[in-house]
């Protein structure tokens, strides 16, 4: 892997890490459940992004596959949270 690509990945890891920290602060300061649910999804998918970036950095296909499975499960969790917040209304 080239040095420029490695630097770009580490910069992306830093940016996504800042996003996770900002999301955690926002979860702590959110006033309603809907905001917490949305920011919780942001934090989850940012974690998946970190997993993908580390998989690319370590050149591990297994890590990227695990991130893909986590993203699929995260979509289901998003739908479940939306149903809970709306109390089942469509």
Order of H and E elements:
HHH
Specify Rg, calculated over alpha carbons: 16 Å
User: What average pLDDT do the residues reach?
Assistant: 88
Q: What is the helix tally? A: 3
Helix share bin: over 70%
Summing up helix and strand content along with how strands pair, one would put the structural category as mainly alpha
What general outline do the C-alpha atoms trace? flat
Largest sheet: none
Number of strands: 0
Strand content: under 5%
**pLDDT below 50 for ≥5 consecutive residues: which ranges?**
none
Q: State the end-to-end CA separation.
A: 48 Å
Question: How would you explain this protein's 3D organization?
Answer:
The protein has 90 residues and is an all-alpha fold. It contains 3 helices and no strands. Helix 1 (3-29) packs antiparallel against helix 2 and helix 2 packs antiparallel against helix 3. The protein starts with a helix and ends in a 5-residue tail after the last helix.
């Amino acid at each position: 892997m080239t040095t420029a690509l490695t630097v770009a990945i580490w910069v992306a890891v830093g940016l996504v890490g800042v996003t996770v920290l900002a999301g955690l602060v926002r979860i702590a300061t959110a006033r309603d459940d809907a905001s917490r649910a949305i920011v919780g999804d942001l934090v989850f998918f940012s974690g998946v992004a970190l997993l993908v970036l580390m998989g690319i950095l370590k050149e591990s296909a297994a890590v990227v596959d695990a991130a893909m499975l986590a993203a699929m499960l995260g979509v289901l969790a998003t739908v479940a949270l939306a149903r809970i917040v709306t109390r089942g209304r469509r």
